[in-house]
Amino acid sequence: MKRYFRAPGRINIIGEHTDYNDGYVLPAAIDRYVTLSIERTGRERIELSSAGREAITFGEGEIEPAGNWGDYVKGIFHVLKSVKKVEFGGLSIEIESTVPEGAGLSSSAALEVATITALNEVFGLSLTDEERYRLSQRAENEFVGVQCGIMDQFASVMGRQDSAIFLDTVSMEYEYLPLELGAYSLVVFDSKVHHELLSGGYNSRREEARKALEILGKKSYRDVSMVDLFSARPKMEDLYYRRAMHVVSENMRVLEVVKTLANSNYENLGRFLVQSHESLAYDYEVSCEEIDFIVDTLRNLNGVSGARMIGGGFGGSVLALCEKSEREKIVEVVRERYFKEFNIAMDAYEVRPSRGAGEIGE
Ligand code: ADP
Ligand code: MG
């Protein structure tokens, strides 16, 4: 019998590049999903297929990374085998997705979480929510080789309808915050560009942020105040100062936005999005020309409360908070100007905060 599971992609309202820096984040799962069907077969192998890609098969005794899309799925098999000693037998897994890849909405985490959620149910593994997101992260870190933080997998597992999740990535304490936007919409503008070679840019920012912390003489960014940062400035190279400035200021912005959401003050939220973007662009240097163009265009349009890049950066998407009544006009103008400037047809769509991964039809 075939069973169907799905796991959402995510947006992050604010708190970018903070999850691996002992910071705060504010993600929401969205109504875009990786959908996976799974069926036991009498064959000995695990067979993977995904619309429009090369099919992949592997035996349970030969789970090695191959440098292709199958690694995100295999990585889950790998971690489950090492912590739960499961015998999977023959399986056929088919994947479909409405989460665009490399667009900053974390298709990779959605794929991992869809896989672990399916295997958890089909093999009765009784994994907790926390095990599902932690093991998914571990698969991406250890098997795929991308040093992502915990936010993406966390959001894909824990998402809730019309809510964002305020997460402390140190204690892993979290709180759902209502994100019922009323007269506003969240709109994603996908630039369709990816300038990052493999995971180079992301991993090097991680390393620079770590080095900045070392220069500051602290164990955790949680112990770095703005005052610490100002007083360390004379002995810090400008690059490390700016990397640390982004982390410290972005964490402060997350806390401010949490207050703002409690009052449903969406005009204020937009201002923080813009500040976050400037910090990511100038201090953390993870934006690019195309993304800056989209943000600048949005900032000058009526009905836009604010906008910023989301995800790892070097391309991907912009998240904007727009007045609903103006949304269509805004999308049209940004699309047109973007095409004129870069000759690239962008994608733009509204997203809604949605619930986390689970079986379909339950
Ligand atoms: P993102 O920001 O979307 O997570 P990543 O580079 O981390 O970008 O992950 C994208 C990778 O995840 C793709 O290159 C592919 O290997 C894999 N992936 C994502 N969605 C799918 C899918 N529907 N089918 C197969 N592989 C996918
Ligand atoms: Mg990813």
From TrEMBL:
<dbReference type="InterPro" id="IPR019741">
    <property type="entry name" value="Galactokinase_CS"/>
</dbReference>
<protein>
    <recommendedName>
        <fullName>Galactokinase</fullName>
        <ecNumber>2.7.1.6</ecNumber>
    </recommendedName>
</protein>
<dbReference type="Pfam" id="PF10509">
    <property type="entry name" value="GalKase_gal_bdg"/>
</dbReference>
<dbReference type="InterPro" id="IPR036554">
    <property type="entry name" value="GHMP_kinase_C_sf"/>
</dbReference>
<feature type="domain" description="GHMP kinase N-terminal">
    <location>
        <begin position="72"/>
        <end position="160"/>
    </location>
</feature>
<dbReference type="GO" id="GO:0005524">
    <property type="term" value="F:ATP binding"/>
</dbReference>
<keyword id="KW-0808">Transferase</keyword>
<dbReference type="InterPro" id="IPR020568">
    <property type="entry name" value="Ribosomal_Su5_D2-typ_SF"/>
</dbReference>
<dbReference type="InterPro" id="IPR019539">
    <property type="entry name" value="GalKase_N"/>
</dbReference>
<dbReference type="GO" id="GO:0004335">
    <property type="term" value="F:galactokinase activity"/>
</dbReference>
<dbReference type="InterPro" id="IPR006203">
    <property type="entry name" value="GHMP_knse_ATP-bd_CS"/>
</dbReference>
<feature type="domain" description="GHMP kinase C-terminal">
    <location>
        <begin position="259"/>
        <end position="338"/>
    </location>
</feature>
<feature type="domain" description="Galactokinase N-terminal">
    <location>
        <begin position="4"/>
        <end position="38"/>
    </location>
</feature>
<dbReference type="InterPro" id="IPR006206">
    <property type="entry name" value="Mevalonate/galactokinase"/>
</dbReference>
<keyword id="KW-0547">Nucleotide-binding</keyword>
<dbReference type="GO" id="GO:0006012">
    <property type="term" value="P:galactose metabolic process"/>
</dbReference>
<dbReference type="GO" id="GO:0046872">
    <property type="term" value="F:metal ion binding"/>
</dbReference>
<dbReference type="GO" id="GO:0005829">
    <property type="term" value="C:cytosol"/>
</dbReference>
<dbReference type="Pfam" id="PF08544">
    <property type="entry name" value="GHMP_kinases_C"/>
</dbReference>
<keyword id="KW-0299">Galactose metabolism</keyword>
<keyword id="KW-0460">Magnesium</keyword>
<keyword id="KW-0067">ATP-binding</keyword>
<keyword id="KW-0479">Metal-binding</keyword>
<keyword id="KW-0119">Carbohydrate metabolism</keyword>
<dbReference type="InterPro" id="IPR014721">
    <property type="entry name" value="Ribsml_uS5_D2-typ_fold_subgr"/>
</dbReference>
<dbReference type="InterPro" id="IPR006204">
    <property type="entry name" value="GHMP_kinase_N_dom"/>
</dbReference>
<keyword id="KW-0963">Cytoplasm</keyword>
<dbReference type="InterPro" id="IPR013750">
    <property type="entry name" value="GHMP_kinase_C_dom"/>
</dbReference>
<dbReference type="InterPro" id="IPR000705">
    <property type="entry name" value="Galactokinase"/>
</dbReference>
<comment type="similarity">
    <text>Belongs to the GHMP kinase family. GalK subfamily.</text>
</comment>
<keyword id="KW-0418">Kinase</keyword>
<dbReference type="Pfam" id="PF00288">
    <property type="entry name" value="GHMP_kinases_N"/>
</dbReference>
